[in-house]
Design a protein that fits this description.
Blueprint: E1 3-10, H1 16-32, E2 39-41, E3 50-57, H2 60-71, H3 76-84, E4 93-98
Antiparallel strand pairs: 1-3, 1-4, 2-3
Helix pairs in contact: 1-3
């Protein structure tokens, strides 16, 4: 099975480049630590400031392990704080989806 983690954010006007630059910093930290980087994209419908960060994991355990490891990376908390300053309050949402099913389910 595959699991997709999506981080959904609505950004304040004029903060897109700041948020994306910070996500690139986080991805560099993840890659250096052997963790999965997140893809950055925007939905076709909605505003320019609707942003999705997405990564795929082989299992729920793999996601949980990487999530804990990512939190402990030097500088990650500071980058997260900078990103949160770009987010419209009350709009942050995450979701974890199982995207493949075996025929036995």
């Amino acid at each position: 099975m595959t699991y997709r983690h999506q981080i959904l954010r609505n950004l304040k006007f004029g903060t897109l480049s700041t948020f994306v630059a910070a996500e690139k910093e986080k991805n560099a930290l993840r890659i250096d630590a052997g963790l999965t980087p997140y893809t950055i994209w925007s939905p076709a419908f909605g505003g320019l400031h609707h942003l999705v960060l997405e990564a795929h994991f082989d299992s729920m355990a793999a996601f949980e392990s990487e999530h804990v490891a990512g939190k402990s990376l030097q500088g990650m908390a500071e980058i997260n704080a900078r990103q949160l300053e770009c987010v419209i309050e009350g709009t942050a949402m995450d979701q974890l989806q199982r995207v493949t099913l075996s025929p036995d389910c």
